[in-house]
Amino acid sequence: MSSSRAAESLAPYDYPQETREQYAKVQYANLEALDISKMEQPEGKAALAKQVLSFINTNGFFLVTGRGFPDEEIRRPYALCRDVFELPLDERRKFACDTAKGDFRGYKERANDKDIVEMYNIPKFTPEHDRPHPQLVLDHLAETKDFSLRIHNKLLLPLLRLFAHVLELEDEDFFVRRHRYEAEGLEYLRYMKYHPRPAVTDAAEFGNIWTPGHSDYNTLTFLFHQPVASLQVQTPPEGAWRHVRSRPDAVVNIADALEFFSGGYLKSTIHRVVRPPPDQADRPRLSLIYFARPEAKVALRPVDSPLLRRLGLQSQTEEFTREVTAEEWARARIAKDHKFRVGEVKTREGQIIAGVSQKFYD
């Protein structure tokens, strides 16, 4: 299909209306904004690093500005996200991911009536991820590739250089060289759809929690504008849950890999998804997410950092019993979640790999 015909094939996407609930009922976290365009200015990197050090362990989510995507560049993938989940279920199932083997590439359907989440994951555009997709996805694959590469190059790489500066590494590209797009790895773009439950069922059986409090298992997660007020972050030290207000700028959270790399100094953000306010709770919630992850063979161990040495954090807070790579960690967590989702195990928590366990926070 030509690019012009592909463009015509997607109906425009309109964001849901913001909730009208009062602030007292929907309490929002105060998120810092990092203007990464300052990375190119004299002393800009130092100013941004100071800003990161002032907030990073009190609010795991932050906004990224200065590399904004035009609104249409966000609405387009949301339109595709919407239409993918409107394909017939039998068609979606042809592209099912193998979560039992720790593989999230492709379509993940709802396992049962209690599982309200379905996903379609498009891995990065490298040879090892060459795989079939629905024709709808293939028709828009070029623009999806462009969107993914923009996130990687314009958002991820400047932030990786910034965190290297925060940790006082002499090599500014230390993390960049461990996140090469062309290298083997499990980086991907996710389309996600939450199907609301009846209000009585949600409250009585699930405590209005759609996804329990957890950390992500990659490096950085990029979330794009979604006004449905469901995403919450756990704010230290009291552990209170606060809603994350969506903004046109990308919302970013630190994930497990950066916590391992920093010996526990940069905390993986604890977050969850809850039932939205009543004026938003009667329709599905879509999410557009990009998971940046280290290359497959990169070991998850603390970097040699002057900052970490001064703080006594040169070894991990929770150590693996053997060396674990980024791919091993990701696949083990996916497979562990699969076993709970399909009823093979009765508890979400337990050992993931090499002596390190998964935790949930509700």
Automatic annotation (TrEMBL):
Keyword set includes Aminoacyl-tRNA synthetase: no
Keyword annotations from UniProtKB, A to Z: Iron, Metal-binding, Oxidoreductase
Transmembrane segment boundaries: none
Superkingdom, taxonomy of origin: Eukaryota
Domain Fe2OG dioxygenase residues, every copy: 185-294
Keyword Metal-binding in record: yes
InterPro entries, alphabetized: DIOX_N, IPNS-like_FE2OG_OXY, IPNS-like_sf, Iron_ascorbate_oxido_reductase, Oxoglu/Fe-dep_dioxygenase_dom
PANTHER family: 2-OXOGLUTARATE (2OG) AND FE(II)-DEPENDENT OXYGENASE SUPERFAMILY PROTEIN-RELATED (PTHR47990)
Family to which this protein belongs: Belongs to the iron/ascorbate-dependent oxidoreductase family.
UniProt name for this protein: Fe2OG dioxygenase domain-containing protein
Native species: Apiospora aurea
